[in-house]
């Protein structure tokens, strides 16, 4: 098999949504469907992901009719080599991802299977992993939680209250949201405002939680910023 690098050109695809995704404000990544866009949202939130490349290369191979053909996977995901404080890295090898709706996989499986096999073989030969992602792997509880948190990400909150929340977690470590609210706030209104601020702090990664579990006031949270950040931002005289 041969392969070459390829730049994606986005065009109109009937029945799909295409566009450009701003990945962490650092780069633009093209997508050709809402399913690809939703995957990018999940990858962006995952701290172990350090880079995503769309249509990273084209693999040349000979099909069953002995004719040359090509296969271009959708994404290549690169991971950090160390584990983050709140998201595990099951395997730090680069991951090749093919995104397909489940109905299309079922309908066109005989046509798609040779490409999937080529992708898997290419990954093994190059010390990578290969995965096919449909809705069941993308639109999970984690994805729903990320969407929920996104509404709080760009809101502005009281800096003093942020300091109180972060200092409390610095002192006690892991705790439930319920416990933190009960310890720091008296009225229902104060707790409601503080809860929204906690969602904001999770969305911007200052607080951590298990994003793959239901988010509610029983959720355990912890500090997700290092000591130098605390000293530089909150305690710098």
Automatic annotation (TrEMBL):
Keywords: Endonuclease, Hydrolase, Nuclease. Residues 138-211 form the TnsA endonuclease C-terminal domain. One of its GO terms (molecular function) is endonuclease activity. InterPro entries: TnsA_C, TnsA_N. Pfam families: Tn7_Tnp_TnsA_C, Tn7_TnsA-like_N. The keyword Hydrolase applies. It comes from the Bacteria. Residues 46-135 form the TnsA endonuclease N-terminal domain. Gene3D superfamilies: 3.40.91.30. This is Heteromeric transposase endonuclease subunit TnsA.
């Amino acid at each position: 098999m041969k392969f070459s690098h390829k730049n994606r050109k986005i065009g109109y695809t009937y029945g799909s949504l295409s566009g450009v995704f701003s990945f962490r404000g650092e780069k633009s990544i093209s997508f050709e469907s809402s399913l690809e866009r939703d995957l990018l949202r999940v990858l962006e939130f995952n701290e172990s992901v350090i880079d995503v490349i769309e249509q990273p290369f084209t693999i040349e191979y000979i099909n069953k009719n002995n004719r040359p053909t090509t296969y271009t996977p959708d994404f290549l995901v690169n991971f950090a080599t160390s584990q983050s404080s709140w998201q595990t890295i099951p395997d730090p090898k680069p991951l090749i991802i093919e995104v397909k709706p489940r109905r299309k996989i079922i309908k066109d499986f005989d046509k798609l299977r040779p490409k999937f096999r080529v992708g898997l073989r290419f990954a093994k030969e190059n010390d990578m992993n290969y995965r096919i992602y449909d809705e069941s792997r993308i639109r999970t509880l984690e994805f729903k939680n990320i969407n929920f948190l996104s509404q709080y990400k760009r809101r502005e909150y009281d800096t003093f209250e942020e300091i109180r929340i972060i200092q409390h977690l610095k002192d006690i470590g892991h705790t439930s949201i319920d416990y933190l609210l009960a310890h720091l706030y008296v009225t229902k209104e104060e707790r409601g405002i503080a809860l929204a601020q906690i969602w904001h702090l999770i969305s911007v990664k200052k607080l951590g939680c298990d994003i793959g579990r239901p988010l509610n006031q029983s959720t355990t949270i912890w500090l997700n910023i290092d000591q130098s950040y605390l000293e530089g931002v909150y305690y710098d005289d």
